[in-house]
Design brief:
InterPro entries: TumE, TumE-like. The protein is α+β, with helices and mostly antiparallel strands. The protein has two helices and seven strands, in the order αβββββββα. A hairpin with a 3-residue loop joins β2 and β3. The termini are far apart.
Length: 127
């Protein structure tokens, strides 16, 4: 059952990527480590110059995906940060610890976004 849940999630992500306009997938690596655990790495170029790097490590617990670690890093053609969501535990004073969002000049509290929401944020930025 866990393997089906993992495959369903990976299929959902692939469909999201297919629906991204003006995007080129530089890298897509989905590794199912055990029937309950998988890692996902994606590099997506938008309009040739913007990069979204995705990294997720997740497990299936009680038929639900739970994220062990994640990072959604979006940058411009000069490799300057536009935003990054991640779960690295280095801002313990934020109410959403360990979840947070890096902006160009600030770090703010936030919950883990779904990859669909991150892709939507990128698309909004590119408009």
């Amino acid at each position: 059952m866990s393997r089906k849940i993992i495959q369903g999630y990976l299929d959902e992500v692939e469909q999201l990527l297919i629906n991204c306009s003006n995007a080129y997938i530089e890298e897509y690596s989905a590794v199912i480590l055990t029937p309950e655990r998988a890692n996902l790495r994606i590099r997506i170029r938008f309009a040739i110059k913007y990069l979204l790097a995705v990294s997720e490590a997740f497990v299936v617990v009680n038929n639900q995906i739970e994220y062990v670690d994640y990072r959604y890093h979006f940058q411009d053609e000069q490799n300057s940060l536009i935003f990054r969501y991640d779960s690295t535990p280095h801002f313990p004073n934020l109410p959403s610890f360990p979840h947070h969002k890096h902006l160009f000049d600030n770090v703010i509290a936030c919950e883990k976004p779904h990859i669909a929401d991150v892709l939507q944020e990128v698309m909004e930025f590119l408009k």
